[in-house]
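Data availability excerpt. The first of two example chains:
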Amino acid sequence: METKPSHPHSSSIPSTSSSSSISSPSATASPSTDITCDQKIEFHEETNDNVVTNGSPFVPPSSLSSTEPCTTLVITTASDSVDTLNNDNKEDHVRKTSSPPSVSLQRSATDFSTPSATLAPPHPVTHDTKTNKPYSIFSKRQKGMIVILAALSSFISPFSANIYFPALNTIRIDLNTTAEMISLTVTVYMIFQGLSPSFWGSLSDSWGRRPVYLMTLFIYVLACIGLFYTPNYTALLILRMLQAVGSSSVIAIGAGTIGDIAGPSERGGYMGVYGLGSMLGPILGPVLGGTISSTLGWRWIFGILAIFTGCLLLGLFFLLPETLRSLVGDGSVYANPTPYQYFTERHRKKKEQQIDIFINHKKSRFLVLPNPFVSLAYLMEKDVAVVLMYNALQYASFYCVLTSLSGLLSKLYGLNEFEIGFCYLASGLGAGMGSMASGRIMDWQFKRLAKKMGMEDHELKRGKMPLEFPLEQARMNFTWVYGIFFCMAMITYGWCLEIKIPLPLVLVFKCIMGFSVTATHNATTTLLVDLFPNNSAAIVASNNIVRCLLGAVAVLAINPGIYALGIGWMFTAISSVLFLSRALIIIELKLGPKWRVQRIERIETEKNTVSTIHSS
């Protein structure tokens, strides 16, 4: 796949070493290029943050004359992790511009987004803290479209997990199996929902977001079509696994996409909109599942999922640009083009005369195999482990509420499937308010702290904040409030059901829990993307692993726990464990910044050591 520039006079070539230095004149100019003076080569690298001039020294060819008019040969490259381009179809474009004979070169900085030396570290990336270049060239309208597409995609996985809850008994009768075997389809879906993003997330960090989006959702559509025609339980179980593999990846990739286009100062707000999609899935799923099952039959649950996702797939194909920053930088260069981008670039090339240089490239990025263990490696980082455990415990507790609600409302209040489905809307209302409110709060808190540090507005548009900026406080400062409200609401909810008070009051506390869990999820996800912006899909995949596996355990444990302890005491016990876990927030706010700095210093030392070995 080609990586081409959107600007008519610039393009991109990959660097041939991790330091982006040039070892020979032949690597920089073709015989047809007329270069006649002493000059230096400026390498402009599109990175996760900004564009700077690489500081590798260049020895000019001996044939150049210092008496002739001086030019500077400017080569625009993507970051070294772009060594992902095909050898046989990549064209690298060079432009000649007038400049003074002396060019100031700076040494590139280092990317600290890999958590451990046991992983293959990403190549160094550059960052210019002196320039005020915006983090992304996408307009606000374009960012809004990308976020909406990502949110709709993230809606699919949790929605699919919950939409056929009201039809479980009907499916059991139709396929002539047991309730335990049908419940197994829920459990395996959550297991594959937790594990598969570690594979797809790693792949999207090398191939790009767009091809993984299209590939995984195509697999999902095929699985839904198969489920519509499923003849027996075995086919149902296998296709539900395949459905989870195809749908769950978009949660991690979507968060990575937000990290690609939104700088830290605005990331919280966009994460709030994006998080609404993944949190509404468990809420709206049972509502629509009960309606579809009671009117059209349970098979049409999967038929409608296939139709909806097929339409979304077309929207992604035509509208979603590639955003992975190691491929497209701030968006000024594109890879994996949409049809419009492809034909626009093809038309431009016919009109403009370009100077092409061909060099030896590394192997295509599509030949790079994903490393699913990257996501697991993040669990070894202390600050990451604290954040993931805090979020996962609250998510699993909320899943206890969701999965037990249908049986409790049917038994205590005599509601049918259709009425039970509408009771889930209370959580949906809370989730919607929590998602939007938490995003605005995070953006406000971020700007308040930046202003307190004396940062100007133009500095907030840069991709990389100063090392001393309190990211943990900007994102997590209010999560303890959400946590306390969640614990209080859960205890009250359990005892309200125990004494069977009027249903509307029960739904109020359910709404409060929906608000709190969504606000917490958005805060933790945004912080993880801030900590590892270059590997955002992989780090969010690690979050998905922990919370989905704990959620699967919760699904298996909640009903036996209610039977053994009673409704009130079971939810009180869960809330007590959660209350103790709130200490993790104190640990993160106190020690998180220290652990973050230690990780950055450790990785910088390791990379300097590797660079010294290579240079020697």
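And the second chain:
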Amino acid sequence: MSSLKKYMSGSQKRKLKERKAEQLQSLPKLTTFFKSQGDSEPSTSDGKLPGDDTTDVHFCDKDDDARSAESQPQILSESAIEVLVPPVTEASPSSSQLTDKNHSMEQDVNVDLCVSSDPADWQHLDMYGAVGSGNTSYLSKTISDDMINLMAEEIHSVIIREAKQAKYYSVSVDSTPDVSHTDQLTFIVRYVKSDGKPVERFLKFIDIHDHGAASIASTVVQIIEDVGLDLGDMRGQSYDNAANMSGIYTGLQARIKARNPLAYYVPCAGHSLNLVGTSATSSCPGSASYFSFLQALYNFFSASTYRWDHLKAALPSEGIVVKSLSDTRWSATADDVKAVYLHYDEIKSALENICSDSRQTVATKLEGEGLRKQMESFETTLLTVIWYKILTRFNATSLSLQKVETDLLSVVKLYESLISFISEMRQGQFDEIDQARTFADPVYIDTTKRVKKRKKFFDESVGNETHLDPRQKFKVDNFYTILDCLRNELEHRVNAYSELKKLFSFLTEYDSMKYDDLKAQLELLVSTYSSDLEASILDEFLQFKDTLSSESDSTTQLQAPSQGAQAREITSSSA
């Protein structure tokens, strides 16, 4: 295809007009109408354009066509609609390649780019393209917006109809400012379709001017009422962990649950894990200082292409460069720590090369020298090893939480696995980290400092003060503090899912549960959802469990003969 152009030259216009005229000479004049409500269906003749599947096209003689064109506005045909909404292909033009002047489509646009080979499209553009105001052409941007709005209304009605058929639903709400600095509330509904597949559907954006829980709660309730859903059928609500959304007393989830006690709150699992990491990075001065050092290291190299080239030259061919930290994305922090851990010596060598370059300014040399000395600190190397072990596991868990197929019970198990990992690491892995390969001399900074003596007051008892050696001091002030903060935050986050786990854990653990435990959990489920479930669910589920067990036994028996035949075949071949 030729290069995209906004306007055509005079010769190109004449050639295009001649080519269209040649193809139209063999065709009769075409007049098309839309079938609208209340209008009678236009009569059709036997003639049809080759390849035209429309049923509302008929041929008229020249006199009829002239009278029709003068007496009533011409309606856009289905084939002409393709001019407004062409098929999306690699060759389709972007919106910047089409012009819009005085709310009408310019006839000078290279129509070869957007009009199909159907001559009816050319005829429609010849008759109604850029004919000025007062003439109906259905090519203006207003009509295009109306068509988009009609399609949006139809999609919206289909979503609401499916949600009503499903009866039970949950909502997810979040707000964020857009590029125009308007804070918009995103409203998403989740339900199960008739085929058993859960889906999430976006409903609308709502401009909000107050972030208070009461204001957002009234907005959410109003939306539910406007779309025709029943608030009593809501069975779940999911928001982020902001205080105005997740507050257990006056937050949005508490206000919704006061109206409907069965609308259980499920916090965003991925966002919760990010908050755990954010809390742990600032849990102690040593940890906060370490991540400030990582950000300063990235800022130093990225401030100049010359320094960045030095860094890339020092790294191996497939090395990882340092990254910028992020307050919301756990993976960005994990990638930065991984880059420093894997290329500690190379990054330090790049700093030394920059500091020894006589062409660099004094400020650059001082900044680089300060970063290099911090990398030679034994505490920095220990924190690099500690955070690499933590972030590697947390980042893998975060990726698992973001998978579509991850269910609520799997979220609880993933959080519990992290709690076990942190507990095991706290019990006896510091010695392994301390004795492992490090990137600096194993000398703590506090070793070279004089022990400070605190002045005692007259009412204090005289006794020997306990002074920790530098290794124990680092272990208590940094290692234990970081892991304790991580564990406390994880236990706090997992408690939000404990109530739902008590109700629904039997769905995945029924095979290993005793009869009494299974019965007790099903009775709890029936008492909680007394308006939704009947007491006979216990017998139904036990029958369902026996059915699954029998099917599993049948499958095992079918596989056993094939395995025996395979064993006999191997034995005979060996003989």
